[in-house]
Each structure stands twice: as structure tokens, then as C-alpha cells.
Amino acid sequence: MKTRSFTVIISKEDDMYIVECPAVGTVDQGETIEQAVARLREATRLYLEEFPTCTQQRIP
């Protein structure tokens, strides 16, 4: 499997961390930064498996 790197935006809202991968369009959340990033990583992996060419169109 090819390894890719993406920029992630992390913000805190109340007691949750919100993480976003703008290049792919995936968003997730968690009670800790580590949990949120792990969930985003999995969501992004699944998204890219289903739509492998989408990032080529979205990244400038």
C-alpha cells in the first residue's frame, strides 16, 4: 500500500477534538487528539479505497 501524507486541521469544541483532512474532505472527532486522529486516519483510508482518484482532483 502506498503511503501518503496529508495536512490535518485539529480544533477543540467543548470536550471533543474535531479533525479534518481538507485535501480529501474527511472529518472525524474524538475525546482525545490521538483518538480523533486515529478515527480520521481510518475514515480517510476507507474513503481513498472507495474513491482512489478523488484526491488527484481536489489537491491543487
TrEMBL record:
Gene3D superfamilies listed in its UniProt record: 3.30.160.250
InterPro entries according to UniProt: TA_system_antitoxin, TTHA1013/TTHA0281-like
Source organism superkingdom: Bacteria
PANTHER family for this protein: ANTITOXIN HICB, UPF0150 PROTEIN SSL0259
Name of this chain's protein: Type II toxin-antitoxin system HicB family antitoxin
Organism, as annotated: Leptolyngbya boryana CZ1
